[in-house]
Specification:
single chain, abc type-2 transporter like fold, six-stranded mixed β-sheet, two-stranded antiparallel ribbon, 8 strands
Length: 370
């Protein structure tokens, strides 16, 4: 029987997969660590909402009112401006815009210092109760300071039974789980590949492979395939546990699940390129963690894993948006909650692939077989 490169590749994959499952660090970083965060945020639920609010004012609002300036200067509030009504409504439904306010100029022709109306959606159920209190407090503070003898002029109009539009609820888990899945892919791609190929080279296993007829490309494919299979199994468990235990949103059910798995595969392949770079530049196994952390830690902190990058200072946001983890996290959330397809998030996928091309070009230059 002629020697089969494919059969040899699958043999390497099987052996490597068994080695991965027996490696405590691989299991911890790829599965247990993200899973713990999902459990924590899943049990905390929507009580862990971030104290930052994105609001918009209606077109007829009185922007010359001192209350408008007071809210505009509040560090907990960001004011978004929409020229397209449909875009504003869509942002409300997705939970990106937490409320629309109407600051009235007059009531029955009589000038009124402060009369504020609020409209929101059920996707912001973790936000609007706190926002309501903040608005009432701001209204009363300004009214008491400028109209101490006329407190009746300060009026907040909000009827939860009518002014909260019922849409799909956006839960904390809908934000956290995609971020943890992205981090799991990043850790597996960088740390897993870096340690794997460095150890294969350092223990002379690669030299033993060279003594066989298998070609070098099939060695990489075999080892890479085991990493991909292990990590995709991890992704399946993370998504299904999040969905069935904590209500993680899969808008179109199984179709959305498949879209997320395909995106996970793309992201993992891209991140593995960074792992090849680290394994090539590392001189010893003790130098792998610093190099790997240099790649993963900034993305973990700034890539929208735990909270939106819109909360960052303006000068830091472009840096965050340049990171590949930011784009895979964003694409995951859009597919899972908004029901978009991979084609709809092609800009995020394209940016991710550009990072992949750059990573593998560098990896080709620095990767060492011996």
């Amino acid at each position: 029987m002629p020697y089969s490169q494919i059969r040899a590749m699958f043999s390497i994959s099987r052996a490597s997969f068994r080695a991965i499952t027996r490696n405590p660090s691989a299991v911890i970083f790829s599965f247990i660590f993200p899973f713990i965060f999902i459990l924590v945020f899943g049990f905390i639920g929507d009580r862990a909402g971030m104290q930052h609010y994105n609001i918009s004012f209606s077109a007829q609002s009185d922007t010359s009112n001192p209350l408008y300036d007071m809210l505009k200067n509040n560090p907990s509030i960001s004011i978004a401006h929409y020229t397209d009504q449909n875009a504003r409504n869509k942002a409300m439904v997705k939970g990106e815009l937490h409320a629309v306010l109407d600051l009235e100029k007059k009531i029955n022709g009589i000038p009124t210092p402060y009369r504020l109306r609020m409209h929101t959606t059920s996707s912001n159920n973790d936000k609007w109760p706190q926002l309501q209190q903040l608005l009432i407090s701001s209204l009363n503070t300004l009214s008491d300071s400028q109209y101490p003898n006329r407190p009746q002029y300060a009026q907040f109009v909000f009827r939860p039974d009518k002014d909260v539009e019922q849409v799909r609820e956006y839960r904390t888990i809908d934000f956290i789980l995609p971020g943890q899945l992205g981090f799991s892919l990043l850790s597996a791609g960088v740390f897993g590949v870096a340690f794997m190929f460095f150890n294969l080279r350092n223990t002379l296993v690669l030299k033993r492979f060279f003594a066989t007829p298998i070609q070098r490309g099939y060695i990489i494919l075999g080892e890479g395939l085991s990493r991909v299979v292990f990590q995709l199994i991890t992704a399946v468990v993370i998504i299904l546990v999040g969905h069935f235990l904590f209500g993680f949103t899969l808008v179109h059910g199984f179709r959305t699940f498949l879209e997320m798995m395909l995106l996970s595969f793309i992201g993992l392949v891209v991140f593995m390129g960074f792992g090849f770079i680290v394994s090539g530049v590392a001189k010893s196994d003790s130098t792998i963690p610093p190099f790997a952390n240099l790649i993963t830690l900034p993305q973990f902190l700034l890539g929208g894993t735990f909270f939106s990058i819109d909360n960052f200072p303006n000068w830091l946001q472009p840096i965050s948006r340049a990171m590949p983890l930011t784009h895979i996290n964003s694409a995951m959330r859009k597919i899972a909650f908004e029901g978009l397809t991979l084609w709809d998030v092609r800009s995020e996928v394209g940016f991710l692939l550009l990072w992949g091309v750059a990573a593998y070009l560098v990896a080709i230059k620095v990767f060492k077989w011996e």
